[in-house]
Amino acid sequence: MPNIATVFKSEIARLARKELRANTDGLRKTVAAQRSEIANLKRQVQALESVVKRLAKSADAAQGHSTPRAADESAGTAESSGLRFRAAGMAANRKRLGLSAADFGLLVGATGQSIYAWEAGKAKPRPQALASIAALRGIGKREVEAKLASLKGETGSD
To answer: E strand or H helix at 8, and its extent?
Structure first.
C-alpha cells in the first residue's frame, strides 16, 4: 500500500499545477493582445514619420533651400555613389600590392588597426577612405611604392 504522505504530496502538486494553468492562461491572452497593440502602434508611428518626412521635404522645396544636414547627407551619398566595399577584395588588393596594413593605411588615410578591422568585416570605411581604397585598385606596385615614399617623406617617418 502506498504511503499516504506521497499520495497527498502528488495530489497537492497536481492541484497547484491546475491552479497555475488557470491563472496563466488569462495572462497569456493579455500579453498576446498587448503585443498586437504594440505592433499596431509601431506601424502607425512609422506611417506618421514618413508623412512628416514628406512634408518636411515639400516645405524645404517650397522655400527653395535645404537644411545643412540635408546638404551633408547628399554630399556623403555623392561621394560614395557607385563605390562598393568588400573586405575580401580590399585584402586581396593589399596583398597584391605587397603592402602591410600600416602602409596601406597610410595610403588610404587610416591606421593599420582600421585596415585590419575593415578586412575582418568588423567595421566599414568612411566615404573618404572608400574613395582612396577605390583609387588604389587600378594602380601597380611601382606607383604605390612611389606614393608611399612621398607620403613617408612628408610625415618624416621611415
So the answer is: helix 4-63
